[in-house]
Protein backbone atom coordinates (compact mmCIF):
# COMPACT_ATOMS: atom_id res chain seq x y z
CA UNK A 1 0.00 0.00 0.00
CA UNK A 2 1.31 3.42 -0.93
CA UNK A 3 0.89 5.75 2.03
CA UNK A 4 2.96 8.87 2.53
CA UNK A 5 3.84 11.28 5.28
CA UNK A 6 6.16 14.06 4.22
CA UNK A 7 8.02 16.03 6.83
CA UNK A 8 7.84 19.76 6.39
CA UNK A 9 10.44 20.70 3.84
CA UNK A 10 13.12 23.13 4.90
CA UNK A 11 13.16 25.90 2.34
CA UNK A 12 15.59 28.78 2.33
CA UNK A 13 13.80 31.71 3.95
CA UNK A 14 14.72 35.16 2.80
CA UNK A 15 16.40 36.85 5.72
CA UNK A 16 18.54 39.88 6.15
CA UNK A 17 22.18 40.02 7.17
CA UNK A 18 24.09 42.78 8.87
CA UNK A 19 24.92 44.41 5.51
CA UNK A 20 21.50 44.03 3.89
CA UNK A 21 19.78 47.22 2.81
CA UNK A 22 16.37 48.43 4.01
CA UNK A 23 14.80 50.13 0.99
CA UNK A 24 11.65 52.21 1.45
CA UNK A 25 9.26 53.02 -1.38
CA UNK A 26 6.67 55.77 -1.34
CA UNK A 27 5.85 59.35 -2.27
CA UNK A 28 7.62 61.04 0.64
CA UNK A 29 10.98 62.76 0.50
CA UNK A 30 12.36 60.34 3.09
CA UNK A 31 11.76 57.34 0.80
CA UNK A 32 14.71 55.55 -0.78
CA UNK A 33 12.78 54.97 -4.03
CA UNK A 34 9.49 56.07 -5.53
CA UNK A 35 8.58 52.90 -7.43
CA UNK A 36 8.84 49.17 -6.80
CA UNK A 37 10.83 48.74 -9.99
CA UNK A 38 13.40 51.26 -8.83
CA UNK A 39 13.68 49.49 -5.46
CA UNK A 40 14.16 46.11 -7.14
CA UNK A 41 16.98 47.56 -9.25
CA UNK A 42 18.72 48.75 -6.08
CA UNK A 43 18.28 45.33 -4.46
CA UNK A 44 19.63 43.56 -7.53
CA UNK A 45 22.88 45.50 -7.17
CA UNK A 46 23.71 43.99 -3.79
CA UNK A 47 24.62 40.40 -2.90
CA UNK A 48 22.51 40.46 0.28
CA UNK A 49 18.83 39.77 0.87
CA UNK A 50 17.47 43.30 1.04
CA UNK A 51 14.08 44.32 2.40
CA UNK A 52 11.80 46.59 0.37
CA UNK A 53 9.13 48.32 2.47
CA UNK A 54 6.14 49.81 0.65
CA UNK A 55 4.39 52.88 2.02
CA UNK A 56 0.67 53.31 1.41
CA UNK A 57 0.95 56.99 0.56
CA UNK A 58 0.77 56.35 -3.19
CA UNK A 59 -0.89 53.85 -5.57
CA UNK A 60 0.99 50.94 -7.13
CA UNK A 61 -0.79 50.27 -10.43
CA UNK A 62 0.10 48.98 -13.89
CA UNK A 63 2.69 46.63 -12.42
CA UNK A 64 4.45 43.70 -14.06
CA UNK A 65 7.18 43.14 -11.50
CA UNK A 66 10.09 40.91 -12.51
CA UNK A 67 11.94 39.68 -9.43
CA UNK A 68 15.19 37.84 -10.10
CA UNK A 69 17.08 38.71 -6.93
CA UNK A 70 16.65 37.62 -3.32
CA UNK A 71 14.46 40.12 -1.51
CA UNK A 72 11.78 40.62 1.15
CA UNK A 73 8.88 42.64 -0.30
CA UNK A 74 6.82 43.92 2.61
CA UNK A 75 3.81 46.19 2.31
CA UNK A 76 1.41 47.77 4.76
CA UNK A 77 3.52 50.70 6.00
CA UNK A 78 1.75 54.00 6.51
CA UNK A 79 4.80 55.99 5.43
CA UNK A 80 8.48 55.54 4.73
CA UNK A 81 10.33 55.05 7.97
CA UNK A 82 7.57 53.06 9.65
CA UNK A 83 9.01 49.72 10.73
CA UNK A 84 5.79 47.84 11.52
CA UNK A 85 3.13 47.06 8.88
CA UNK A 86 -0.42 48.02 9.81
CA UNK A 87 -2.26 46.73 6.73
CA UNK A 88 -1.75 45.43 3.20
CA UNK A 89 -0.45 47.35 0.21
CA UNK A 90 -2.30 46.81 -3.06
CA UNK A 91 -0.26 45.87 -6.12
CA UNK A 92 -2.36 46.20 -9.27
CA UNK A 93 -1.27 44.53 -12.50
CA UNK A 94 -1.66 45.41 -16.15
CA UNK A 95 -4.29 42.80 -16.99
CA UNK A 96 -1.96 41.23 -19.57
CA UNK A 97 0.95 39.89 -17.51
CA UNK A 98 1.77 38.53 -14.07
CA UNK A 99 1.57 41.23 -11.43
CA UNK A 100 4.52 39.60 -9.61
CA UNK A 101 6.85 37.22 -11.47
CA UNK A 102 9.70 35.54 -9.59
CA UNK A 103 12.35 33.83 -11.69
CA UNK A 104 15.36 32.24 -10.04
CA UNK A 105 18.45 31.79 -12.22
CA UNK A 106 20.44 28.57 -12.15
CA UNK A 107 22.85 28.08 -9.31
CA UNK A 108 21.85 29.36 -5.89
CA UNK A 109 18.63 30.84 -7.22
CA UNK A 110 16.65 33.38 -5.22
CA UNK A 111 14.84 33.58 -1.89
CA UNK A 112 11.82 35.88 -1.92
CA UNK A 113 9.35 36.77 0.81
CA UNK A 114 6.00 38.44 0.03
CA UNK A 115 4.25 39.90 3.05
CA UNK A 116 1.37 42.31 3.80
CA UNK A 117 0.34 42.65 0.15
CA UNK A 118 -2.84 42.57 -1.90
CA UNK A 119 -2.09 41.35 -5.42
CA UNK A 120 -4.63 41.71 -8.23
CA UNK A 121 -4.98 42.60 -11.89
CA UNK A 122 -2.68 39.94 -13.29
CA UNK A 123 -3.88 38.75 -16.69
CA UNK A 124 -3.22 36.91 -19.92
CA UNK A 125 -1.45 38.65 -22.77
CA UNK A 126 -0.97 37.65 -26.38
CA UNK A 127 2.67 36.74 -25.81
CA UNK A 128 4.15 33.63 -24.16
CA UNK A 129 5.16 34.34 -20.59
CA UNK A 130 4.15 34.52 -16.96
CA UNK A 131 0.53 35.31 -16.23
CA UNK A 132 -1.83 35.58 -13.28
CA UNK A 133 -1.28 37.14 -9.89
CA UNK A 134 2.03 35.54 -8.89
CA UNK A 135 4.17 33.41 -11.22
CA UNK A 136 7.16 31.46 -9.84
CA UNK A 137 9.71 29.67 -12.04
CA UNK A 138 13.33 28.53 -12.04
CA UNK A 139 15.43 28.09 -8.91
CA UNK A 140 13.16 30.11 -6.65
CA UNK A 141 12.05 29.73 -3.04
CA UNK A 142 9.09 31.95 -2.22
CA UNK A 143 7.39 32.44 1.15
CA UNK A 144 4.02 34.17 1.40
CA UNK A 145 2.34 35.49 4.55
CA UNK A 146 -0.46 37.98 5.28
CA UNK A 147 -1.28 38.32 1.58
CA UNK A 148 -4.51 38.43 -0.45
CA UNK A 149 -4.40 37.40 -4.14
CA UNK A 150 -7.57 38.03 -6.07
CA UNK A 151 -9.13 38.91 -9.44
CA UNK A 152 -6.29 37.64 -11.60
CA UNK A 153 -6.44 35.54 -14.79
CA UNK A 154 -4.04 33.02 -16.27
CA UNK A 155 -3.73 29.84 -18.28
CA UNK A 156 -1.87 28.09 -15.46
CA UNK A 157 -2.62 29.34 -11.95
CA UNK A 158 -4.93 32.31 -11.86
CA UNK A 159 -3.84 33.32 -8.38
CA UNK A 160 -0.45 31.62 -8.10
CA UNK A 161 1.43 29.49 -10.63
CA UNK A 162 4.55 27.53 -9.60
CA UNK A 163 6.46 25.54 -12.20
CA UNK A 164 9.75 23.70 -12.45
CA UNK A 165 11.46 21.09 -10.32
CA UNK A 166 13.51 23.71 -8.48
CA UNK A 167 10.63 26.04 -7.66
CA UNK A 168 9.37 26.06 -4.06
CA UNK A 169 6.40 27.85 -2.51
CA UNK A 170 5.41 28.15 1.14
CA UNK A 171 2.06 29.65 2.09
CA UNK A 172 2.68 30.40 5.75
CA UNK A 173 -0.33 32.14 7.35
CA UNK A 174 -3.24 34.44 6.57
CA UNK A 175 -3.14 33.87 2.81
CA UNK A 176 -6.42 34.44 0.96
CA UNK A 177 -6.54 33.37 -2.71
CA UNK A 178 -9.96 34.13 -4.15
CA UNK A 179 -11.91 35.15 -7.26
CA UNK A 180 -9.20 34.21 -9.74
CA UNK A 181 -9.66 32.40 -13.06
CA UNK A 182 -7.52 30.05 -15.13
CA UNK A 183 -7.66 27.14 -17.51
CA UNK A 184 -5.77 24.99 -14.98
CA UNK A 185 -5.80 25.85 -11.29
CA UNK A 186 -8.07 28.80 -10.71
CA UNK A 187 -6.43 29.60 -7.38
CA UNK A 188 -3.15 27.66 -7.39
CA UNK A 189 -1.28 25.64 -10.03
CA UNK A 190 1.75 23.48 -9.17
CA UNK A 191 3.62 21.81 -12.05
CA UNK A 192 6.60 19.58 -11.18
CA UNK A 193 7.25 22.01 -8.33
CA UNK A 194 6.69 21.81 -4.56
CA UNK A 195 4.27 23.81 -2.44
CA UNK A 196 4.06 23.63 1.35
CA UNK A 197 0.81 24.97 2.76
CA UNK A 198 0.56 25.69 6.47
CA UNK A 199 -3.02 25.18 7.74
CA UNK A 200 -2.92 28.57 9.43
CA UNK A 201 -5.78 30.66 8.02
CA UNK A 202 -4.84 29.82 4.43
CA UNK A 203 -7.81 29.69 2.05
CA UNK A 204 -8.32 29.11 -1.68
CA UNK A 205 -11.93 29.96 -2.41
CA UNK A 206 -14.36 31.15 -5.09
CA UNK A 207 -11.96 30.60 -7.98
CA UNK A 208 -12.87 29.20 -11.42
CA UNK A 209 -11.07 26.97 -13.92
CA UNK A 210 -11.61 24.25 -16.49
CA UNK A 211 -9.61 21.78 -14.38
CA UNK A 212 -8.92 22.30 -10.70
CA UNK A 213 -11.18 25.17 -9.75
CA UNK A 214 -9.25 25.75 -6.53
CA UNK A 215 -5.96 23.87 -6.89
CA UNK A 216 -4.43 21.96 -9.83
CA UNK A 217 -1.37 19.74 -9.40
CA UNK A 218 0.42 18.42 -12.48
CA UNK A 219 3.34 16.19 -11.58
CA UNK A 220 4.11 18.35 -8.56
CA UNK A 221 3.72 18.04 -4.80
CA UNK A 222 1.43 19.96 -2.49
CA UNK A 223 2.03 19.18 1.17
CA UNK A 224 -0.40 20.50 3.79
CA UNK A 225 0.78 20.37 7.38
CA UNK A 226 1.89 22.40 10.37
CA UNK A 227 5.33 23.97 10.70
CA UNK A 228 7.35 22.16 13.36
CA UNK A 229 9.32 25.37 13.95
CA UNK A 230 6.18 27.37 14.74
CA UNK A 231 4.61 26.19 18.01
CA UNK A 232 2.31 29.19 18.48
CA UNK A 233 0.27 30.12 15.38
CA UNK A 234 -3.21 28.56 15.70
CA UNK A 235 -3.99 25.67 13.36
CA UNK A 236 -7.33 26.36 11.67
CA UNK A 237 -7.00 24.20 8.57
CA UNK A 238 -6.37 24.80 4.88
CA UNK A 239 -9.72 25.75 3.38
CA UNK A 240 -10.61 24.95 -0.25
CA UNK A 241 -14.16 26.22 -0.70
CA UNK A 242 -16.65 27.52 -3.22
CA UNK A 243 -14.46 26.90 -6.27
CA UNK A 244 -15.80 25.69 -9.60
CA UNK A 245 -14.45 23.68 -12.55
CA UNK A 246 -16.29 23.26 -15.83
CA UNK A 247 -14.32 20.02 -16.19
CA UNK A 248 -12.98 17.95 -13.29
CA UNK A 249 -11.81 18.67 -9.78
CA UNK A 250 -13.90 21.49 -8.38
CA UNK A 251 -11.72 21.86 -5.29
CA UNK A 252 -8.51 19.98 -6.17
CA UNK A 253 -7.30 18.28 -9.36
CA UNK A 254 -4.26 15.97 -9.07
CA UNK A 255 -2.65 14.46 -12.18
CA UNK A 256 0.61 12.90 -13.32
CA UNK A 257 2.73 10.04 -12.05
CA UNK A 258 4.49 12.32 -9.57
CA UNK A 259 1.46 14.47 -8.83
CA UNK A 260 0.66 14.31 -5.11
CA UNK A 261 -1.55 16.01 -2.59
CA UNK A 262 -0.47 15.02 0.93
CA UNK A 263 -2.97 16.82 3.11
CA UNK A 264 -3.31 17.07 6.85
CA UNK A 265 -5.77 19.55 8.38
CA UNK A 266 -7.67 20.34 5.19
CA UNK A 267 -11.33 21.13 4.54
CA UNK A 268 -12.65 20.82 0.98
CA UNK A 269 -16.23 22.06 0.88
CA UNK A 270 -18.90 23.53 -1.39
CA UNK A 271 -16.97 23.15 -4.65
CA UNK A 272 -18.49 22.09 -8.01
CA UNK A 273 -17.28 20.19 -11.09
CA UNK A 274 -18.40 17.75 -13.74
CA UNK A 275 -16.46 14.94 -12.00
CA UNK A 276 -14.91 15.06 -8.56
CA UNK A 277 -16.75 17.97 -7.01
CA UNK A 278 -14.31 18.10 -4.11
CA UNK A 279 -11.22 16.16 -5.23
CA UNK A 280 -10.28 14.49 -8.52
CA UNK A 281 -7.20 12.28 -9.04
CA UNK A 282 -6.30 10.99 -12.50
CA UNK A 283 -3.46 9.80 -14.72
CA UNK A 284 -1.42 8.43 -11.82
CA UNK A 285 -2.17 11.34 -9.49
CA UNK A 286 -2.33 10.61 -5.75
CA UNK A 287 -4.57 12.46 -3.29
CA UNK A 288 -4.16 11.68 0.40
CA UNK A 289 -6.06 12.99 3.42
CA UNK A 290 -4.37 11.77 6.61
CA UNK A 291 -3.09 13.08 9.93
CA UNK A 292 0.51 12.67 10.96
CA UNK A 293 -0.01 11.69 14.60
CA UNK A 294 3.66 11.19 15.43
CA UNK A 295 6.30 13.80 16.16
CA UNK A 296 5.83 17.50 16.87
CA UNK A 297 3.05 18.22 14.39
CA UNK A 298 0.04 20.23 15.58
CA UNK A 299 -3.54 19.88 14.37
CA UNK A 300 -6.89 21.65 14.29
CA UNK A 301 -9.17 21.37 17.30
CA UNK A 302 -11.62 18.47 16.74
CA UNK A 303 -14.60 20.83 16.46
CA UNK A 304 -13.27 22.15 13.13
CA UNK A 305 -13.29 18.67 11.53
CA UNK A 306 -10.13 19.44 9.59
CA UNK A 307 -10.04 16.29 7.49
CA UNK A 308 -13.34 16.78 5.71
CA UNK A 309 -14.89 16.71 2.22
CA UNK A 310 -18.38 18.18 2.49
CA UNK A 311 -21.08 19.94 0.52
CA UNK A 312 -19.43 19.46 -2.88
CA UNK A 313 -21.41 18.79 -6.06
CA UNK A 314 -20.69 17.03 -9.36
CA UNK A 315 -22.32 14.98 -12.06
CA UNK A 316 -20.13 12.06 -10.95
CA UNK A 317 -18.26 11.73 -7.67
CA UNK A 318 -19.70 14.50 -5.55
CA UNK A 319 -16.98 14.29 -2.90
CA UNK A 320 -13.98 12.43 -4.33
CA UNK A 321 -13.42 10.82 -7.73
CA UNK A 322 -10.50 8.81 -9.12
CA UNK A 323 -10.06 7.88 -12.78
CA UNK A 324 -7.43 6.64 -15.26
CA UNK A 325 -4.99 5.29 -12.68
CA UNK A 326 -5.63 7.92 -10.02
CA UNK A 327 -5.48 6.99 -6.33
CA UNK A 328 -7.38 8.41 -3.40
CA UNK A 329 -6.41 7.64 0.20
CA UNK A 330 -8.78 8.92 2.90
CA UNK A 331 -7.80 8.27 6.49
CA UNK A 332 -9.88 9.41 9.48
CA UNK A 333 -11.78 11.65 7.06
CA UNK A 334 -15.39 12.84 7.01
CA UNK A 335 -17.22 12.68 3.66
CA UNK A 336 -20.55 14.38 4.28
CA UNK A 337 -23.35 16.12 2.45
CA UNK A 338 -21.96 15.84 -1.07
CA UNK A 339 -24.27 15.66 -4.11
CA UNK A 340 -24.01 13.88 -7.47
CA UNK A 341 -26.06 12.05 -10.06
CA UNK A 342 -23.64 9.12 -9.82
CA UNK A 343 -21.53 8.34 -6.77
CA UNK A 344 -22.84 11.01 -4.45
CA UNK A 345 -19.91 10.52 -2.06
CA UNK A 346 -17.20 8.65 -4.00
CA UNK A 347 -16.46 7.48 -7.55
CA UNK A 348 -13.90 5.07 -9.01
CA UNK A 349 -13.42 4.61 -12.76
CA UNK A 350 -11.02 2.42 -14.78
CA UNK A 351 -9.15 -0.72 -13.76
CA UNK A 352 -5.99 0.97 -12.51
CA UNK A 353 -7.78 3.42 -10.23
CA UNK A 354 -7.87 2.87 -6.47
CA UNK A 355 -9.76 4.38 -3.56
CA UNK A 356 -8.95 3.51 0.06
CA UNK A 357 -10.88 4.61 3.12
CA UNK A 358 -9.63 3.87 6.64
CA UNK A 359 -11.52 5.19 9.65
CA UNK A 360 -13.86 6.87 7.19
CA UNK A 361 -17.24 8.48 7.98
CA UNK A 362 -19.51 8.67 4.92
CA UNK A 363 -22.86 10.20 5.83
CA UNK A 364 -25.71 12.35 4.51
CA UNK A 365 -24.60 12.33 0.89
CA UNK A 366 -27.51 12.73 -1.50
CA UNK A 367 -28.52 12.53 -5.12
CA UNK A 368 -28.89 15.24 -7.69
CA UNK A 369 -32.55 16.10 -8.17
CA UNK A 370 -32.41 14.75 -11.72
CA UNK A 371 -31.18 11.32 -10.50
CA UNK A 372 -32.97 10.53 -7.23
CA UNK A 373 -31.81 6.88 -7.31
CA UNK A 374 -28.08 7.50 -7.38
CA UNK A 375 -25.53 5.28 -5.66
CA UNK A 376 -23.37 6.47 -2.77
CA UNK A 377 -20.26 4.95 -4.34
CA UNK A 378 -20.10 4.62 -8.12
CA UNK A 379 -17.64 2.24 -9.78
CA UNK A 380 -16.73 1.64 -13.39
CA UNK A 381 -14.00 -0.90 -12.64
CA UNK A 382 -11.12 -0.25 -10.28
CA UNK A 383 -10.37 -1.14 -6.66
CA UNK A 384 -12.10 0.05 -3.51
CA UNK A 385 -10.97 -0.85 -0.01
CA UNK A 386 -12.71 0.21 3.21
CA UNK A 387 -11.66 -0.56 6.76
CA UNK A 388 -13.19 0.74 9.99
CA UNK A 389 -15.68 2.83 8.00
CA UNK A 390 -19.19 3.99 8.81
CA UNK A 391 -21.75 4.47 6.03
CA UNK A 392 -25.07 5.94 7.19
CA UNK A 393 -27.94 8.23 6.20
CA UNK A 394 -26.96 8.35 2.53
CA UNK A 395 -29.82 8.92 0.06
CA UNK A 396 -30.49 7.11 -3.21
CA UNK A 397 -30.96 3.53 -4.27
CA UNK A 398 -31.02 0.75 -1.65
CA UNK A 399 -27.43 -0.30 -2.21
CA UNK A 400 -24.20 1.30 -1.17
CA UNK A 401 -21.95 0.67 -4.16
CA UNK A 402 -22.87 0.09 -7.78
CA UNK A 403 -20.47 -1.17 -10.47
CA UNK A 404 -21.17 -0.71 -14.17
CA UNK A 405 -17.94 -1.94 -15.76
CA UNK A 406 -18.09 -3.43 -19.24
CA UNK A 407 -18.64 -7.21 -18.93
CA UNK A 408 -15.48 -9.13 -19.73
CA UNK A 409 -13.41 -5.97 -20.25
CA UNK A 410 -13.06 -4.51 -16.78
CA UNK A 411 -12.12 -5.61 -13.31
CA UNK A 412 -13.87 -4.46 -10.15
CA UNK A 413 -12.41 -5.33 -6.74
CA UNK A 414 -14.08 -4.36 -3.48
CA UNK A 415 -12.98 -5.24 0.05
CA UNK A 416 -14.61 -4.14 3.28
CA UNK A 417 -13.55 -4.94 6.85
CA UNK A 418 -14.70 -3.91 10.34
CA UNK A 419 -17.31 -1.62 8.80
CA UNK A 420 -20.87 -0.48 9.48
CA UNK A 421 -23.48 -0.08 6.73
CA UNK A 422 -26.71 1.57 7.83
CA UNK A 423 -29.75 2.22 5.66
CA UNK A 424 -28.63 0.13 2.69
CA UNK A 425 -29.92 -3.47 2.46
CA UNK A 426 -27.33 -4.25 -0.24
CA UNK A 427 -23.66 -3.40 -0.23
CA UNK A 428 -22.80 -4.16 -3.83
CA UNK A 429 -24.72 -4.36 -7.09
CA UNK A 430 -23.54 -4.48 -10.70
CA UNK A 431 -24.74 -4.64 -14.28
CA UNK A 432 -21.22 -5.10 -15.59
CA UNK A 433 -18.39 -7.54 -15.00
CA UNK A 434 -18.70 -9.85 -12.01
CA UNK A 435 -16.88 -8.18 -9.13
CA UNK A 436 -14.37 -9.61 -6.74
CA UNK A 437 -16.07 -8.80 -3.43
CA UNK A 438 -14.81 -9.75 0.02
CA UNK A 439 -16.03 -8.50 3.39
CA UNK A 440 -15.16 -9.52 6.93
CA UNK A 441 -16.59 -8.23 10.22
CA UNK A 442 -19.23 -6.10 8.51
CA UNK A 443 -22.61 -5.29 10.03
CA UNK A 444 -25.67 -4.10 8.14
CA UNK A 445 -28.96 -3.07 9.70
CA UNK A 446 -31.14 -4.44 6.88
CA UNK A 447 -31.11 -6.90 3.98
CA UNK A 448 -29.33 -10.23 3.98
CA UNK A 449 -25.82 -11.63 4.07
CA UNK A 450 -24.31 -11.22 0.61
CA UNK A 451 -21.85 -13.45 -1.17
CA UNK A 452 -18.31 -12.83 0.01
CA UNK A 453 -19.31 -11.62 3.49
CA UNK A 454 -17.48 -13.54 6.21
CA UNK A 455 -17.98 -13.24 9.97
CA UNK A 456 -20.62 -10.59 9.31
CA UNK A 457 -24.20 -10.11 10.44
CA UNK A 458 -27.48 -8.24 10.12
CA UNK A 459 -28.70 -6.36 13.18
CA UNK A 460 -29.79 -3.02 14.59
CA UNK A 461 -27.27 -0.17 14.41
CA UNK A 462 -28.04 2.80 16.63
CA UNK A 463 -26.06 6.01 16.82
CA UNK A 464 -25.79 8.49 19.65
CA UNK A 465 -27.48 11.46 17.93
CA UNK A 466 -27.61 11.16 14.13
CA UNK A 467 -30.04 14.09 13.81
CA UNK A 468 -27.25 16.35 15.07
CA UNK A 469 -24.53 14.64 13.05
CA UNK A 470 -23.30 12.28 15.75
CA UNK A 471 -22.70 8.85 14.23
CA UNK A 472 -20.84 7.35 17.17
CA UNK A 473 -22.22 4.05 18.38
CA UNK A 474 -24.85 4.21 21.10
CA UNK A 475 -24.49 1.91 24.07
CA UNK A 476 -25.83 -1.60 23.59
CA UNK A 477 -24.85 -2.02 19.93
CA UNK A 478 -23.70 -5.45 18.94
CA UNK A 479 -21.07 -3.72 16.81
CA UNK A 480 -19.23 -2.88 20.03
CA UNK A 481 -16.49 -5.46 20.69
CA UNK A 482 -17.54 -7.37 17.57
CA UNK A 483 -14.28 -8.25 15.79
CA UNK A 484 -10.81 -9.51 16.63
CA UNK A 485 -7.48 -8.00 15.67
CA UNK A 486 -7.36 -9.60 12.22
CA UNK A 487 -7.92 -6.12 10.88
CA UNK A 488 -5.81 -4.29 13.45
CA UNK A 489 -6.17 -0.81 12.00
CA UNK A 490 -3.53 0.81 9.91
CA UNK A 491 -4.92 4.08 11.25
CA UNK A 492 -4.88 4.12 15.01
CA UNK A 493 -6.61 5.83 16.81
CA UNK A 494 -10.18 6.28 15.57
CA UNK A 495 -11.78 9.41 14.10
CA UNK A 496 -11.96 10.96 17.59
CA UNK A 497 -8.40 10.12 18.53
CA UNK A 498 -9.54 7.26 20.77
CA UNK A 499 -7.34 4.13 20.67
CA UNK A 500 -8.88 1.08 19.03
CA UNK A 501 -9.62 -2.10 20.91
CA UNK A 502 -11.00 -0.67 24.16
CA UNK A 503 -12.81 -3.40 26.06
CA UNK A 504 -16.52 -2.59 26.23
CA UNK A 505 -18.97 -3.34 29.03
CA UNK A 506 -20.62 -6.37 27.43
CA UNK A 507 -19.56 -9.74 26.09
CA UNK A 508 -17.42 -9.92 22.96
CA UNK A 509 -18.50 -11.56 19.71
CA UNK A 510 -15.13 -12.22 18.10
CA UNK A 511 -12.90 -9.79 19.95
CA UNK A 512 -12.64 -6.33 21.49
CA UNK A 513 -12.51 -4.22 18.32
CA UNK A 514 -15.57 -2.10 17.51
CA UNK A 515 -16.88 -1.70 13.98
CA UNK A 516 -17.01 1.61 12.15
CA UNK A 517 -15.22 4.92 12.27
CA UNK A 518 -15.53 5.36 16.04
CA UNK A 519 -14.46 3.24 18.98
CA UNK A 520 -17.18 3.27 21.64
CA UNK A 521 -15.67 5.28 24.46
CA UNK A 522 -17.28 8.65 25.15
CA UNK A 523 -20.28 10.84 24.39
CA UNK A 524 -20.10 13.35 21.58
CA UNK A 525 -21.11 16.81 22.79
CA UNK A 526 -21.36 18.95 19.68
CA UNK A 527 -22.40 17.11 16.54
CA UNK A 528 -22.61 20.35 14.62
CA UNK A 529 -21.01 21.29 11.32
CA UNK A 530 -17.84 23.28 11.82
CA UNK A 531 -17.93 26.93 10.71
CA UNK A 532 -15.11 26.52 8.18
From TrEMBL:
SUPFAM superfamilies: Pectin lyase-like. InterPro entries: PbH1, Pectin_lyase_fold/virulence. Keywords: Signal. Residues 485-508 are annotated as: Disordered. Residues 1-20 form the signal peptide. This is Outer membrane repeat protein. The lineage of its organism: Bacteria, Pseudomonadati, Pseudomonadota, Gammaproteobacteria, Lysobacterales.
